[in-house]
Amino acid sequence: MPLAESLIEKGHAYRCFCTKEDLEKKRAEAALKNETFKYDKHCLSLTLDEQNELLASNTPFVIRQNIPLQGITSFTDLLFGSISVENSTLDDNVLIKADGMPTYNFANVVDDHLMAITHVMRGMEYLSSAPKYNLLYEAFGWEIPAYIHMPPIMKDASHKLSKRTGDASFQDLEEKGYLADAILNYIALLGWNPGDEREVFTLKELEEVFDVSGMSKSPAIFDPVKLTWLNAAYIRNLTQEQFSFYSRPYYLKAGVSNLDEGMLFRILQQRVEYFSQIPDMVDFLADLDENYSIELFTNKKSKTDSAISKTVLELVIKELGALNNWAEEELHTLFAELAQRLDYKKGTLLWPIRIALAGKAVTPGGAIEIALLLGREESLRRLNIGRKKLEL
Predict the structure, then answer these.
(1) Catalytic (active site) residue 163
(2) What is the C-alpha to C-alpha distance for residues 82 and 181, in angstroms, rounded to an integer?
(3) What pLDDT score was predicted for residue 235?
(4) What is the pLDDT of residue 131?
(5) What is the DSSP string of 294-346?
(6) Is 0.85 surpassed by the pTM of this model?
(7) How confident is the model at residue 36 (pLDDT cuts 50, 70, 90)?
(8) In degrees, to the nearest 5, what angle opens at C-alpha 331 toward C-alphas 327 and 336?
(9) Residue environment code for 295-312, b if the CB has 16+ CB neighbours within 10 A, otherwise e
């Protein structure tokens, strides 16, 4: 309040005692004339005695900025360039509300000055307010910061992104399993062009190449498909240790946190686009849905049907039961020998094994990776379930 009072003393602000009803009447009159409402400075003409009388009677008031009626206020925006506005078009902002609280239009100027802010970056919807803010800076004798008014990020051509309408926040995206660095990378590319074809940047690289001159004056469209693609690119570059760190909460949710992280990394890293996809990808590892259809065993590409699948499973169950070492190399060797013995292509042999192990047609990893993750006992149990389904 002392700062606002100092503006009153200098003639850059005044107390306004107009009631809500007064203002609504003036707005209605402006609307009837098809004019934009602009406060008419009525209370600026009150004499000191009139003001004191109103104050003595505890009449509520606000403090308004006293915008000059003549002259032009100019400033330079680092994106939009030089901008000049006629003072006569500017409205007298309310600086202090009737309850004594400052408005944003006043608080942002005072806060930025007190925090020694040198550059103000904000949405272009505040571009028209900058002249009024500059008049406040000048009234206080403070240095005016450099401005960058940025275009909005849009949901589509007509709608801004809005948490209120269900659009995801940064935190929402992180909770969904998007990497913070990927989100930052994508946001940086919204309304900014690096000047070449690169799209994937580390934070350090962005710091080195970012320049305001590459920013667009037009709104940018937030494309969740592009963000997902970029996030997937980041995931492909993670080490096993990093991938496992981000995946563990989802392994726990899926009930597979007891399984080999190295093998999970192998089958998932090239498929996961964001980490919350993991539970749906690996749910079959925790619990086989035994009600899967035997039609899954028929696959034209792999040249399998129920009869071939039954033959495969019967032989595989027998051979796996006698396998000494449940390890990747041994499983590869055994399946190759069985395919040769049956005169089947490897895909023909492996398709029914994978269906019996997973109960679904699409899985991360093939029959061997799934068998290694499940272990001997669980693999044989599932293979026997598949065989029995084919005998019905």
Answers:
(1) yes
(2) 34
(3) 97
(4) 93
(5) GGGG-BTTTTB-HHHHHHHHHHHHHHHHT-S--SHHHHHHHHHHHHHHHT--H
(6) no
(7) confident
(8) 155
(9) ebbbbeebebebebbbbb
Cα gap 265→215, rounded to integer Å: 38
Query: Domains, the chain, ranges and CATH?
Result: 2-150 (3.40.50.620), 171-236 (1.10.1160.10), 240-282 (no CATH), 294-391 (1.10.10.350)
Mention every residue, 6+ apart, whose C-beta is less than 8 A from residue 13. Answer: 4, 7, 63, 64, 65, 66, 95
**In the predicted structure, residue 38 carries a pLDDT above the cut 80:** yes
Burial of 210 (0-12, 13-18, 19+ CB in 10 A): middle
Q: What is the pLDDT of residues 42-70, one digit of tens each?
A: 999 999 999 999 999 999 999 999 999 99
For 8, residues 6+ apart whose C-beta sits below 8 A from its C-beta are: 14, 15, 63
Q: Where are the beta strands (DSSP E) in 106-206?
A: 119-123, 146-150, 153-154
Comparing CA positions, the residue from 263, 268, 230 lying closest to residue 246 is: 268
Q: Which of 25, 97, 132, 163 is catalytic?
A: 163
